[in-house]
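>> received
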Amino acid sequence: MTESLDKLRDASLTKAIMAEIRRITTQPWNIMEICGGQTHAIMQYGLDQLLPKEITLIHGPGCPVCVTSLEAIEQALQIAARPDVIFTTFGDMLRVPGNQADLFTARSQGADVRVVYSPLDSLKFARENPEKQVVFFAIGFETTAPTIASTILSAEKAGIENFSILPANVLVPPAMRAILSNPVNRVQGFLAAGHVCAVMGYHEYPPIAEQYRIPIVVTGFEPVDLAAGILMTVQQLEAGQHEVTNAYPRFVTREGNQTAQRMIAQVFEPVDRQWRGIGAIPLSGLGLRADYAAFNALNRFELSQTALRESPLCIAGQVLSGVAKPHDCPAFAKDCSPLHPLGAPMVSSEGACAAYYRYHRISE
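>> returned
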């Protein structure tokens, strides 16, 4: 009963917030939600259709599965194919296409590819299979980095030498800068990802807001949270302001989880990283520090260089950069579907293309 009343209150509040957005909006504004989880919530609840026509929501690159580079996928496939390897990954990565195959296909061909819910599961496999090399595909934004760092520290402490990671973590603030620096950028305001800020805080964002004169609002994932974040962004845009504000204070503080940040800083350091469909972004990834280089799978296995070939039909890079929407792609819902994806945004549970497909947004 209490849960039902809470939902009714949230629905009523969301409706009131949307009415206020319509009341104060006087001109067109383009707002990007960073996180793919936010994109799916917006599509699921039709929030974009409740906004005034002047407000356009742009879907950002906040899906770690989607932006994991094609090079990393090809490295994963090579490592997974080795008979002495147990390759572990989150479930969304199985269907992400490489050049000609994916990890699901590799598993069907005999590779020991296992889905895990945490890198700690991978460490357990390493303990149980000392004759095997266990490799965890370390994808994700700042949200997964503390657990990965903790797992590496646990492996070091326990002397487990048959565990390593394929590093592919990426960072949000450099991606925001890359989007805003793009000559075809349309973004005028950001809804920052609440779960990333719960770990990292939002002290990194004021310099971005000041440099690009753009409001950034830390936002949650429930409809009422998203509506509140959009309202706070529109209020700033209409007033000509460019501040960083927090619409998710029940989970996020300015400084974030400093224990988690210290753990990340102990194990990782910023490195340049390729983002699939977007390209190289300086200092946008997390690489292992020299003290933990022994846990880098790229140092354990000799891998061959492969030519990287994206599907010529897929415009995932434009979707991830906010330049296009999924239904702008000529392959969307035709040659590209969740069962037969051409690009990662159609695979991931946080991908914009998957959200549009699931909620039947074939056109606007």
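>> Residues 89 and 104 are 11 Å apart (CA to CA).
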